[in-house]
Amino acid sequence: xxxxxxxxxxxxxxxxxxxxxxxxxEISATIPRGRITAIVGPNGSGKSTLLGILAGTVTAQSGxxxxxxxxxxxxxxxxxxxxxxxxxxxxxAVAMGRWAxxxxxxxxxxxxxxxxxxxxxxxxxxxxxxxxxxxxxxxQRQRTLLxxxxxxxxxxxxxxxxxxxxxxxxxAEISRALAEISATGxxxxxxxxxxxxAEQADHCLLLRDGRLEAxxxxxxxxxxx
Length: 225
Ligand SMILES: Nc1ncnc2c1ncn2[C@@H]1O[C@H](COP(=O)(O)OP(=O)(O)OP(=O)(O)O)[C@@H](O)[C@H]1O
Description:
The structure is a single chain. By secondary structure, the chain is α/β, with parallel strands linked by helices. It has one domain: P-loop containing nucleotide triphosphate hydrolases (Rossmann fold, 3-Layer(aba) Sandwich), CATH 3.40.50. Helix content is 32%, strand content 28%. The protein has 8 helices and 9 strands. α4 (110-122) runs antiparallel to α5 and α5 packs parallel to α6. Residues 9-225 form the ABC transporter domain.
């Protein structure tokens, strides 16, 4: 049965890329369910592309990807990818997480609003709820994106470099939040350049030039990074 599988993903000889050009080459890897996995590697090694495969936004050219999580993944893109002047409040941005369940044109229910409120609180954003995104610090914006992902209540959360550009205090907050999410049984996968963050993960994949160079416990993998 699917939900007894201890792997969230089983990837076998995956080759993938863009417009006929391969970025990932013959990757075989397992991503554990209900744990935190860090994807590390130099710039351009294919971390975001692999996240795209897990999110379903990039398609395999060959090989296979088997996913045992059942819900639409919550994907936290790099916060620098969010337009700075988006005319939206923190509360509205977090409530958008419920669109995965309602669609953007349907009214949110009382339950949706309560879930969004709880996620704001969980990420320490209640006092900032009425602030526009373009008035936030990088750390506050990243917490907002994470709260939006939490509001989706997915069993799979994917994050592209959530700590990049943040100070030590904000990085620690994001790290604590990911540990909390994972403790509730959610599978968390993050691409990261932050070796301290990767060390905290349960599992680690090291990419180099689109190939999987090492996989396993961060202590064993990161010495090769
Ligand atoms: N949408 C795209 N179309 C075409 N090529 C792309 C696209 N996205 C990424 N690439 C290319 O794929 C390769 C791997 O990029 P990817 O973003 O997956 O690496 P990364 O390890 O996440 O890099 P970084 O650490 O710089 O974010 C790069 O050569 C990049 O130029």
